[in-house]
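Lest this sound abstract, we think one record worth quoting, the chain in one-letter code, the fold tokenised, each line plainly labelled:

>
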Amino acid sequence: MEATAVRAHQDLKSSLRAPSRPSYVVACLCSLSFLTIVDRVCISAAKTDMSRELSITDVTFGWVFGAFAIGYTLMMVPSGWLVDRYGPRKMLALFVLLWSLLTAATGWVNAAAILLLVRFLFGVAEAGAFPGAARAISYWLPIHKRGLALGLLNTGSRLGAAFGLWAISFCVVHWGWRFSFLLLGIAGGIWAVLWYVWFRDHPSRNPSIGGRPHATDISVLTSATIQNLSRSGTVYLVLFQYFASNFTFFICFSWLLPYLKSHYGLSNTAAGMYAAIPLYFGALATWVSGAAVDFTFRKGHWKLSRRLPAMVGFGLAAVAVVAAAFSPSPNGFIGCFAVATFGVDLTLSPSWTVCADIGGIRTGALSGAMNMLGSLGALASSVLFPFLLGSTGDIKAYFYLAAFLDVLAMVGWGFVLGKSAKLFAVPDSAPPNDCAVS
């Protein structure tokens, strides 16, 4: 009895020191994605005041938005490699601490050149957030539960953007944009410290409360090689479709709020509330898509569980984004763009889940490469939106281009996990008929 009591006491102490179950890990990573995007979109909410005080034109501010995307792009694969090499515990804590310092530093800039540099470094620091989260999920959750987990990860980002556009708009009006950036920097620093103290990289580090790696995933985790990844058509299709997704979506993080204010004459607060609506639709889509991915997989359809939500999403986005271009009122415009956002965000869970499917021990690097193409799409969106708007006088050209990319991505998803799937281990929990090489 004494020995049993001692073991129980030790188990209790262990549970207080470490994550108690995978769902807590997912919840913590959702809070990370929430914070990540709040920090990212706050500059959009502050854009008008910053432009006036620092004498920055719209074209120059397009490059301010783009500077983040450049830094984000350049560091994406290296940061994924760092996460694979040193683990998400150390690297996520470091990444969040660095970008929080840079967020606070944004409130001290006094010239456009300094702002460009700070936003570039901010992008460098933020690059490892989602690859790190994907790597943590790939170890803590079995394959039949990753779709919803990765969907919820992106739900946090959409809710963070919706909250950020509204809350930072409020803060800028009442306390100024400089103090708003300082508050966000403090919040990020607190998260980084708590994550490092609380999290462990792998369930096996806490066998009494987390268990060990799921046996059905061992072959997948060890199967990927750089050679196989470079030979896989699935990899290149997934990279392209993420470019298309971010090209359509990134306007939510950059030009949507300023466009609503200038084109429809809305106040800062009203524009912030309108700009948040597509993000709520996106948050719903990430949950719906993640649940659909896991449900379809459990029914025995591995490839279909990844392809179908993405193809439906891109098809819906292509139609809705064209409709938005012809909407004369802010209500109609936001309604159509919300549907388009819902569509492209249906593709997120399949995208990240495929990276975990075939990436294995290189999930961080592969998801980083995918996110790198996504950031290139974001950069193209940041620069082309004001350019095309200024050149043509309306937004139709931008949305036509977005719809074209969405259609190409929809077609591409029909070939994801095709013949090149034979280069990777097949998830054991899917039935032979659906996992057979096509």
Q: What stands out?
A: Residues 285 and 376 are 23 Å apart (CA to CA). The chain has 20 helices and no strands. Confidence is low (pLDDT under 50) at residues 1-20, 206-223, 426-438. The radius of gyration is 22 Å.
